[in-house]
Amino acid sequence: MIEILQSVIPTALFYSAPLILTALGGVFSERSGVVNIGLEGLMVMGAFVGIVFNLTFSDVLGAWTPWVSILVAMVVSAIFSIIHAVASVSFHASQVVSGVAINMLALGIGVYLTKQWYGKGQTDMVAQPFYTTDIPLLSKIPVIGSIFFQGIYITSYLAIILAFVAWFVLYKTPFGLRLRAVGEHPMAADTNGINVSRMRYIAVILSGALGGLGGSVFALTIASNFSHSTIVGQGFMALAAVIFGKWHPLGAMGAALFFGFAQSLSVIGSNIPLLQDVPQIFLLIAPYVLTILALAGFIGRADAPRANGEPYIKGSR
């Protein structure tokens, strides 16, 4: 049993980290009242920037390359998300249409520049990806250490820590209170002196940064290169985790861990006695089927922020 857990838990955490990070971005955006269908595009942009930066500067930065790569991906994706903020907040455009446009634009830019710079449909494999490691001291704990802290990616625990940070920011700080107020009742927030547009801009840019972080972590741990098929459905699974987690950072983390476990089944299924005889194709489609079933079962009981998806026009009712 311990051997099974040693293979299941690190792999599930490995696949969950990008989903957790991107879902946290979705929570910030939607808590402010801006629907962000563009999480997929933000992940694509993060993956593209992270891989290209890694390939370009690996000789200069050495072992620090993946860490600097994800920071650069965060910044570029945050800037890229301003397009969605301008369309949704300033021009009161349909937030769904704007998000879909972000998805299409990010993929188009990534694929086009990849072909221009590398002369083919995908980049080279990175020389400096993230590697598994043992957590000092914690990995020595009997039983638990070998399951949770040996052969894991630091990014997996970074994602979990950020989920708790996001919870603290949203529920224990004045900034979080203002952000939630803007998403629940923007007119009341405006009356109390809160700049609705500014709060929504900040939330969308935060979602861009976290989406870019999620995409770059996915690319530098799972994919190791960039092509049109690097990020396929990950952003939508993160969006599903936001809804399944009831727009709460820790709920979104739990949902992302569940979806990450479902994704890991295609890799570790052969090690689990109950799944050894299940055809590989069923394990590959499992995460998407479970995503649909989870949303079908919970969407009716999950209440979105009341002003989610509604543009706020100052002075209107």
UniProtKB/TrEMBL annotation:
GO terms for cellular component: plasma membrane. The chain crosses the membrane at residues 12-29, 41-61, 67-89, 96-114, 147-170, 201-220, 281-299. It comes from the Bacteria. It is a multi-pass membrane protein. Its main location: membrane. Keywords: Cell membrane, Membrane, Transmembrane, Transmembrane helix. The keyword Membrane applies. InterPro entries: ABC_transp_permease. The keyword Transmembrane applies. It is found in: Cell membrane. GO terms for molecular function: transmembrane transporter activity. This is ABC transporter permease.
